[in-house]
Design goal:
It contains 14 helices and no strands. The protein is an all-alpha fold.
């Protein structure tokens, strides 16, 4: 069962119980935002940055291509050979990065973290390695180190979208709503997920007018996912004390 389907089922369960609805939505908004940053791990961004790779190193090229094809066992073989045999630090940095990505995808977060650190030892400005280090710490429950490395990622590249979402999410989870909002506001996107999270942030800052406005935008967005529309509608009706759960549930069909 997909993560998104589990979220839908959980929403239906809580909706039927009608207990602590607002608190639940404040939590689920973080889970939804988590979906937006889950496993970014350079899969898309690195395609636009091929110039950073050392294409003289055939093992690295083979490893990266196999990684993109999700043939992780073969990718691991070539990436290890690249890491051991390459002379250039950038080549070693990217080989260690992708090896770490593979271990992260396998749920081996401690081992992945070590490889991301190794990647950074060869290139301290490797944005992806720094960001993935933050993700690994977060998976291991070390939120202070996760925040520290997310901030370092921001220093290296202040427009890296996955990290902006992660940083805003972490500030939100820590109850630092003004800081979360300042990060969200740097993101130029019409994405409904971002709007929902900004709406909840405004709600926590007691700015109900802006929160309601954003919820309405999501509800009226023909391209927004049904669960986002349901969350937006039910939370809006809760804030306005209408408690119109029937229409919200209709979005779930």
């Amino acid at each position: 069962m997909s993560i998104f389907k589990k979220l839908i089922l959980k929403f239906q369960e809580v909706f039927l119980q009608r207990k602590r609805i607002l608190q639940y939505f404040l939590t689920i908004s973080l889970l939804i935002l988590g979906l937006a940053i889950y496993f970014s791990l350079t899969d898309e961004k690195d395609k636009a940055r091929n110039g950073r790779f050392d294409y003289v190193n055939k093992d690295l090229v083979a490893g990266v291509n196999l990684y993109r094809l999700e043939n992780y066992e073969r990718a691991e073989f070539f990436l290890k050979r690249s890491l051991e045999g390459a002379k250039g630090k950038k080549t070693k940095s990217f080989a260690a990065l992708y090896l770490g990505n593979i271990l992260y995808k396998k749920g081996k977060y401690t081992d992945a973290l070590e490889l991301f650190r190794e990647s950074l030892s060869y290139n301290k400005k490797n944005v992806f390695a720094m960001y993935n280090t933050a993700l690994s710490y977060l998976k291991l429950g070390n939120t202070s180190q996760a925040l520290r490395h997310s901030l370092k990622t921001f220093e290296l590249q202040n427009d890296y979208l996955p990290n902006l979402l992660l940083l805003g999410n972490m500030y939100y989870g820590a109850g630092k709503y003004q800081k979360a909002l300042s990060i969200y506001n740097t993101i130029e996107s019409d994405d409904a997920i971002l709007k929902i999270n900004k709406a909840f942030t405004y709600l926590n800052l007691n700015n109900t007018d802006l929160a309601k406005s954003l919820f309405k935008v999501v509800i009226d967005d023909t391209e927004a996912d049904k669960i986002l529309k349901a969350i937006g509608h039910y939370t809006l009706s809760y804030v306005e004390q209408h408690n119109d759960g029937v229409k919200a549930a209709g979005y779930m069909r």
